Amino acid sequence: TQLLEQSPQFLSIQEGENLTVYCNSSSVFSSLQWYRQEPGEGPVLLVTVVTGGEVKKLKRLTFQFGDARKDSSLHITAAQPGDTGLYLCAGEEDNYGQNFVFGPGTRLSVLP
Amino acid sequence: GAGVSQSPSNKVTEKGKDVELRCDPISGHTALYWYRQSLGQGLEFLIYFQGNSAPDKSGLPSDRFSAERTGGSVSTLTIQRTQQEDSAVYLCASSPLSTDALNTEAFFGQGTRLTVV
After folding, report:
1. Which of A82, B23, B24, B105 has the smallest number of CB atoms closer than 10 Å to its CB?
2. Span B72-92, pLDDT tens digits
3. φ/ψ bin of A78: left (φ > 0), alpha (ψ from -120 to 50), beta (otherwise)
4. Closest Cα in chain A, distance from residue B62 (Å)
């Protein structure tokens, strides 16, 4: 099973600041997903990236998939308290098997 | 319902007892996953079912853990002789079969919070 690492593990920032969180692996994934999880809820998908070098934007969130499809980053511009949560990246091991491997997550706290 | 349903939502059990956790996936989803999440932690993979294929049990932490998926739909995760370290939120997710990576997504239930006392 391929392993994913995420950094930082914890991040506490003030409203309006920018931040970037990272997801890294030594292995190649066919696709990579970012989820956000709020307390008491299951994770909810934010985005899927499949092409090396791909950049996707979702409002104030920018996702990038590394050229070699081993790593990804999530950048949040002008963070809001509503962005608070656990951000998980998940790699899909192959196109057909669809076994998602999750990283440990980055716990983000945005203070008003 | 339209989403993944898990029951019970909370379970308190005495050490040494057996527990069964249930997951009703979204209708038509061929893939079903069980994960465990300890307090403040990420998701630990437990087991994965895909259609009629043999399940991937590589994440089960011990032989006290087992899971079944009957009729390709409902799944039950059983923990025998529970220990305090089994306390966690157990999350179930399902996914439709698709060869298009852009259209794959794991839909999660709200989890079962298991507390072993």
Report:
1. A82
2. 799 999 999 999 999 999 999
3. left
4. 17
